UniProtKB/TrEMBL annotation:
<dbReference type="Pfam" id="PF00364">
    <property type="entry name" value="Biotin_lipoyl"/>
</dbReference>
<feature type="domain" description="Lipoyl-binding">
    <location>
        <begin position="94"/>
        <end position="151"/>
    </location>
</feature>
<dbReference type="InterPro" id="IPR011053">
    <property type="entry name" value="Single_hybrid_motif"/>
</dbReference>
<dbReference type="InterPro" id="IPR000089">
    <property type="entry name" value="Biotin_lipoyl"/>
</dbReference>
<protein>
    <submittedName>
        <fullName>Acetyl-CoA carboxylase biotin carboxyl carrier protein subunit</fullName>
    </submittedName>
</protein>
Length: 155
């Protein structure tokens, strides 16, 4: 026998408005017999996104204040947590890691997950580059702004 599962469109609208307000691009909600995945689309202005990515993205540049800034190829970027949660290097339903040290990633690739209760929020690569190291162990609790992965940007 098939079970009828109804979705309240008002609830979906409320969830998507929360996603947009929190700048979260992806959410997956599961309950017995049903899984709903919502993905927010990126803004279509790629040039504006590239210009503002260095200012607005949760990326902390490595280095000390007052030290001369290294060139782009020598500069490491830390991908940081957008919220508190549990950092996952693998999807809960899989055994293979999303990325490992030495892996080449592209802008927008999922490099980890932040588990917040039953919600897994993707951690994405802010630039094309190479994963230098994963700074946090799988399953570790992290806070907002915690460096998760160190990337070396591609030229």
């Amino acid at each position: 026998m098939t079970q009828k599962i109804e979705v309240d469109i008002g609830e979906l609208r409320q969830i998507t408005s929360w996603l947009a307000a929190a700048d979260i691009e992806f959410i997956e909600i599961s309950k017995p017999g049903a899984t709903v995945r919502l993905t927010m689309e990126q803004a279509s202005c790629a040039a504006d996104a590239d210009a503002s990515a260095q200012v607005d993205s949760p990326i902390a540049r490595s280095g000390r204040a007052g030290a001369p800034e290294p060139s782009l190829n020598e500069q490491a970027l830390s991908v940081t947590a957008k919220s508190a949660g549990i950092f996952l290097t693998t999807h809960p339903a899989r055994s293979t890691p999303l990325v490992s040290a030495g892996a080449h990633v592209k802008l927008g690739d999922i490099v980890g997950l932040l588990q917040i209760a039953q919600l897994c929020v993707p951690v994405v690569a802010p630039v094309d580059g190479v994963v230098m190291r994963i700074s946090v162990a799988h399953g570790a609790t992290v806070g907002y702004g915690t460096p998760l992965i160190e990337l070396s940007p591609s030229a």
